[in-house]
Amino acid sequence: MAEVTYYTQEGLDKLKQELQYLKTEGRANIAKAIAEARDKGDLSENAEYDAAKEAQGLHEAKIAKLEGVLASARLIDESNLDTSKVLALSYVKIKNKKNNAVMTYQLVSETEADMKAGKISVKSPIAQGLLGKSVGEIAQVEVPAGVMEFEILEISR
Questions:
Q1: Is the pLDDT of residue 69 over 90?
Q2: Which of 147, 142, 76 is nearest to 107 (CA)?
Q3: Which residues pair with 9 in a beta bridge?
Q4: pLDDT of 2
Q5: Cα–Cα dist 28/9, whole Å
Q6: Rounded to whole angstroms, how far apart are CA atoms 61 and 41?
Q7: CA distance to 17, 124, 130, per residue, from 24 (Å)
Q8: Which contacts (CB < 8 Å, 24+ apart) does range 24-27 have?
């Protein structure tokens, strides 16, 4: 059984668009490459044909994987979430107790994580340390460099 993963509407839509592209244009491009390679002669000695068939296999595996992800994906209704504690999809404003740096992150699924956009995976060490905490609490997070302390300043949706 696949692990259930929670997504925002934006993240779920992005996955569905990618799957649609792979099933339509992606498959058409691979079929075209196979046809072009087949036209070049003897298939037993045609490396281009073998490469195109291998690419087709990888493409179909990617489609199957994405279908599996979508089958176990759940959309979170953000309007019903409690903002008193840090949960998945929370926006959390934190302050590093060591250097007083203030950061804001949104805790999202692994596939939606994008550090540049301020989205971190709920499975990351920082997110794991923040989950379940309330405003004013100190989260101690174990990272490769040691233990970091973050004060939770604000939680929002």
A1: no
A2: 76
A3: none
A4: 61
A5: 28
A6: 28
A7: 11, 34, 41
A8: 26/59, 26/63, 27/59
| Residue located via tokens 């926006």 | 91
In contact, 73 and 65? CB cutoff 8 Å: no
Cα–Cα distance measured from residue 23 to residue 60, given in angstroms and rounded to the nearest whole number = 9
**CA-based nearest residue to 115, from 89, 123, 106, 93:** 106
Residue 45 has which token pair?
């000695």
Task: Give per-residue pLDDT as tens, 105-136.
Answer: 999 888 888 889 999 998 899 899 999 899 99
User: According to the model, what pLDDT value does residue 80 have?
Assistant: 65
**Alpha-helical regions (H) of 94-146:** 125-130
What is the C-alpha separation between 80 and 92, in angstroms, rounded? 17
